[in-house]
Amino acid sequence: MVRYGFTARFLRLTVAGYLASIVTVAAAVWFASAPVLHDMQNGAKRVHLETKANVIAGLLDDVMANGRAVSSDQNTIAFASGETGLEQDTKTRLSDLTNVRLFDSLGRVLFNRPTLSAGSPFLEVEGKEGLAEMVAGRRALLPRVLYRPGDSKFEAHFQISIPLLYENTVAGLLVYESHMDLTAVLSSADDVLVTMLLTPFQKDKWASWTDGGEIIDVQIPDHSFFVAAQTDRSVFESIGLDLVLTAISVAMVALLLPFALMAFSGMRAIVRPHKDLLESQNLLAEKQGELEELAQIAEMASESVTVTDENTRIIWVNRAFTTMTGFSVEEAVGQTPRQLLQGPETNKEARNEIRQAVQARRPVQTEIINYHKDGSRYWIKLSIAPLISLRTGELRFTAIATDVTEAKEAQHTISEAKRETEHQARHDPLTALPNRRYLDEVLESEVCNSAAARTLIRVDLDHFKNVNDTLGHAAGDFVLVEVANCLRRSIGPNDLAARVGGDEFVILLAVDGNTDKAKALTEKLRVQLGTDMVFEGKTCRIGASFGIATASEGLVGNEDLLKSADAALYVAKDTGRNTTTLYTPDVHHAVLAKRKLSSEIEQGIARGEFIAFFQPQIDALTEELVGVEALVRWWHPTRGILPPNEFLKVAEQLRILSDIDRQVFAYGLDCMRILNEDGLRIPKISFNVGMHQLMNPVIDYLAGQVKIGNTRVSLEVLESVLIEEDASGFQARISELRDMGFTIEVDDFGSGHASVVGLKALNPDIMKLDRVLVAPVTESASARTLIKSMVEIGKALGISVTAEGIETAEHAAIMRDLGCDTFQGYYFARPMDFDQLREFIKDGYDTKLDGVASIAVQRDRLGDIK
């Protein structure tokens, strides 16, 4: 009776499990396949929409190609830039575009031709949106396409805006429209219910405008609008239901046999319950034999196995223990592992960890140093666990040890290599001093956020370049190493010396360092570094300049020490070198003033405050005006007209000289244009240009844009280019400038390293003798002889000679006799602004006076022009 009761219950459970399995399979099929079916359906629709999107993108590319051709036309760009005489040509080029408008860079309409009778769905402001940001450089210089739906379902209106660019500068904006009938592209006969072209706003709102269904959208490539469709979900649900019914049918057949077998096997298990009880009894009888087998396995194991009593005395070891340690079984039994294996270098932390685990009778794993019988040490990975004896119930401890010496040594080697690599990354390889990275880390972690005031010394070697240039880099390296050794010997144990650049060093004093200690240290270093150093029998002479900044006096904080010491060092080098300068309120104010001046220079460039003054150049024989030299001036809004020495040095440090040169060049050309339009012709205007400006094609562009009549443009380069610039690229550039009509002059010839070979290679049109050579000719025969030689060199090479610094009539007479062609100096006129230049020219040409009298009359009328 009991047997049949167990059987019926087991069968009921089996049938219930069978039915539950079928339901589970059906549910699993539905939930597993539904996403796949859904993704497949949507994927097909998305591919369909991507094809439509690519077709529309291709149509737009064709429309935009016409606009790009017009926007890249140089005449169109010139017309947008304000050049006259191109209006008819531009209108002709724009005639193929629909509803076209042309804006200049300020957003003003230069051309507007509506061609559609229905008008435009776009506002004018939409077309030129973003123009100001592109002009200011805050927006990418890329075309923009706007979309508006038409009156019919598949009608679309597009507006294309393309910037007109010259040299990455926005000259204007071309805006036109295209109206398309996209019926052939967007219509579909399949189960897609609705296909539309949408803006991002319409796409977000479309779901609320439709009657349900799922929305699929694809963005038009390279544009900000979408092709979207609404799908029919009933198709997906029908396919899913068929799949589930099929899965149920298959599951019913597939699960029938397994559950029948399970029922048969289960019945046997139910009627024979005593079998498990019998097997468990037999298992207990077999345990003793298994323990003996485990002991044999432990004996054959490669890991050392040790068994100790509750007092940690060894009672059994395996063969691997004797092999690893060198101790025999007899030598080990009765000893404790600590007495037998541990020694002076055994790590105390691991020893304490083991003792605490044994006392608490819990397992422990650790790594520890042990010693072989011969006294050599080795590392082991040790696992200890408590064990209760089955026969006696006594406490035992089992220890399994693995030799990990090779792994630990490899780990140590890697750590040492990593430590060495980190050391090299934070130290200078030549001097072994800490480098800039090390110093920055110390300043950030220990100094900037410290409450204790610190003191820092900035060291820069004087005349180090001379050592490199005359004795070679090996001598230079020797000097740097000697300087580093000197710093090490001179600083305190808690001070830090670092090499932060080529010949630049920094000393960070300890917390107790102050201004007095810093001054004493720099004076000591100044004397030591001023002593001659001998390298391979050659004497190396250097010096050092020092800048000191301290936070102890409250002028600066710890976070500003380095840049404050830099400022003090700059003053030290600027005032004669081989000296020490402390960062004081005066230096602080000078730094603030320099920062203010830097900001004002940048603002002045933005506001176009840099202009040209003009100094006339006079023919030496006829004393007629033959040209002017444009000299840079800053028309400061509060300080008035400033000469170059007030701002050029700072501008050079800011690397913005090219921007100032560009403004002066444009200003000078524009002044010449105005004078020529007024009938006051100047034969030549000269501009001082550095190498950066000479190689810059912007001077080609500016000279071509400003119509200055017959006035020639001359470019003055310093004589240093005769020996510094011998590359073929430089010579090719000079030839190119000559071909464009520029005159080439060498300025300040004879003031530095005059090179006749370089002069012949450059072959300038004019060479200008520096005023330092001209000034002494009234008193020195040797000076006159030198000038005569230079003039003869120029004449021999076919070069016209201009003399600067003509201050007196005697200067003019002597230089005329020596053969100079052109004069420039205060005797004839000082540099003058544009209005003064206009009056100067008018007076000279109106009076029609000749010779010195004409120039003298002009000087009397203009006075001492500054």
From TrEMBL:
<feature type="transmembrane region" description="Helical">
    <location>
        <begin position="15"/>
        <end position="37"/>
    </location>
</feature>
<dbReference type="InterPro" id="IPR052155">
    <property type="entry name" value="Biofilm_reg_signaling"/>
</dbReference>
<dbReference type="InterPro" id="IPR043128">
    <property type="entry name" value="Rev_trsase/Diguanyl_cyclase"/>
</dbReference>
<keyword id="KW-0472">Membrane</keyword>
<feature type="coiled-coil region">
    <location>
        <begin position="277"/>
        <end position="304"/>
    </location>
</feature>
<dbReference type="InterPro" id="IPR001633">
    <property type="entry name" value="EAL_dom"/>
</dbReference>
<dbReference type="InterPro" id="IPR035919">
    <property type="entry name" value="EAL_sf"/>
</dbReference>
<dbReference type="Pfam" id="PF13426">
    <property type="entry name" value="PAS_9"/>
</dbReference>
<dbReference type="InterPro" id="IPR035965">
    <property type="entry name" value="PAS-like_dom_sf"/>
</dbReference>
<dbReference type="Pfam" id="PF00563">
    <property type="entry name" value="EAL"/>
</dbReference>
<keyword id="KW-1133">Transmembrane helix</keyword>
<feature type="domain" description="PAS">
    <location>
        <begin position="290"/>
        <end position="361"/>
    </location>
</feature>
<dbReference type="InterPro" id="IPR001610">
    <property type="entry name" value="PAC"/>
</dbReference>
<dbReference type="InterPro" id="IPR029787">
    <property type="entry name" value="Nucleotide_cyclase"/>
</dbReference>
<feature type="domain" description="PAC">
    <location>
        <begin position="362"/>
        <end position="416"/>
    </location>
</feature>
<dbReference type="Pfam" id="PF00990">
    <property type="entry name" value="GGDEF"/>
</dbReference>
<dbReference type="InterPro" id="IPR000014">
    <property type="entry name" value="PAS"/>
</dbReference>
<keyword id="KW-0175">Coiled coil</keyword>
<feature type="domain" description="GGDEF">
    <location>
        <begin position="452"/>
        <end position="585"/>
    </location>
</feature>
<feature type="domain" description="EAL">
    <location>
        <begin position="594"/>
        <end position="845"/>
    </location>
</feature>
<protein>
    <submittedName>
        <fullName>Signaling protein</fullName>
    </submittedName>
</protein>
<dbReference type="InterPro" id="IPR000160">
    <property type="entry name" value="GGDEF_dom"/>
</dbReference>
<feature type="transmembrane region" description="Helical">
    <location>
        <begin position="243"/>
        <end position="264"/>
    </location>
</feature>
<keyword id="KW-0812">Transmembrane</keyword>
<dbReference type="GO" id="GO:0003824">
    <property type="term" value="F:catalytic activity"/>
</dbReference>
<dbReference type="InterPro" id="IPR000700">
    <property type="entry name" value="PAS-assoc_C"/>
</dbReference>
